[in-house]
């Protein structure tokens, strides 16, 4: 199979994605420079735009891996253009994930690409297609956390540091939640090819409810506490203090007003 089977126009980067990338760059600069009169607004726009960029890259990784595995139909579906509007419904793919970020500081890509699995041969290829998305979040998390674990924060403005820490938290939560072996999530897609036909048939009816089940569990205080303890431990190992992620979340929710606690670094 060759990627030449897809037209050049099917692989042209969407102006929508480029626009979101430009918003990320401009608001990132505004957060860094302190240019914005309300830093919280700049942080909100920066984190939201960067989060949507990561959503697009997550779904693109699924599609690109599927293309190289034999599904040439992903090009005609627009999955290789990085256009967020091509990844299923705009509400489910973009709006709801952003709402979940606002409500609880939890990152989980909500989009999906429909892969023609009948075109793909080999269980390892099926697993790799499912793993490609959350692995992109892992890579994004590495980039976001690099200044912290490399000790390269000298001269970095506090607001930008907070925003980067919160964005890293979103990527880490997205990677962990997506790798859960729950029907409907990528983690289940990784192991599904290795399950018996009977088990797959029994699990299939529950796939549409897997995401709802995970979020319902996360609203249980005890489960939520354990989950974020794990996240904080992972981020702490990467040099990100809870203070940074907390203040990043507070800045992100700019409509709540300024938080004096975050005006002084620990």
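Q: What amino acid sequence fits the structure above?
A:
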């Amino acid at each position: 199979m060759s990627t030449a089977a897809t037209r050049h126009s099917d692989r042209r980067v969407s102006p929508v994605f480029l626009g979101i990338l430009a918003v990320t760059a401009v608001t990132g600069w505004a957060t860094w420079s302190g240019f914005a009169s309300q830093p919280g607004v700049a942080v909100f726009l920066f984190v939201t735009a960067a989060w949507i960029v990561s959503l697009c890259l997550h779904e693109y990784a699924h599609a690109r891996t599927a293309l190289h595995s034999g599904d040439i139909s992903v090009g005609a579906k627009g999955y290789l253009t990085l256009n967020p509007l091509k990844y299923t419904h705009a509400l489910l793919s973009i709006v709801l994930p952003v709402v979940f970020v606002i409500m609880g500081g939890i990152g989980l890509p909500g989009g999906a690409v429909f892969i023609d699995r009948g075109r793909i041969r080999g269980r390892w290829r099926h697993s790799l297609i499912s793993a490609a998305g959350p692995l992109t979040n892992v890579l994004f998390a590495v980039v976001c956390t690099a200044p912290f674990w490399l000790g390269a924060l000298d001269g970095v403005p506090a607001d930008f540091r907070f925003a980067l820490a919160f964005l890293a938290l979103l990527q880490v939560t997205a990677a962990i939640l997506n790798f859960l072996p729950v029907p409907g999530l990528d983690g289940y897609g990784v192991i599904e090819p290795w399950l018996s036909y009977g088990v797959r048939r029994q699990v299939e009816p529950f796939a549409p409810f897997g995401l709802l089940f995970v979020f319902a569990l996360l609203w249980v205080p005890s489960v939520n506490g354990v989950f974020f303890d794990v996240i904080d431990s992972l981020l702490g190992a990467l040099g990100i203090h809870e203070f940074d992620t907390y203040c990043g979340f507070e800045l992100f929710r700019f409509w709540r007003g300024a938080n004096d606690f975050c005006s002084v670094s620990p």
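Q: And what stands out in the fold?
A: DSSP finds eleven helices and no strands in the chain.
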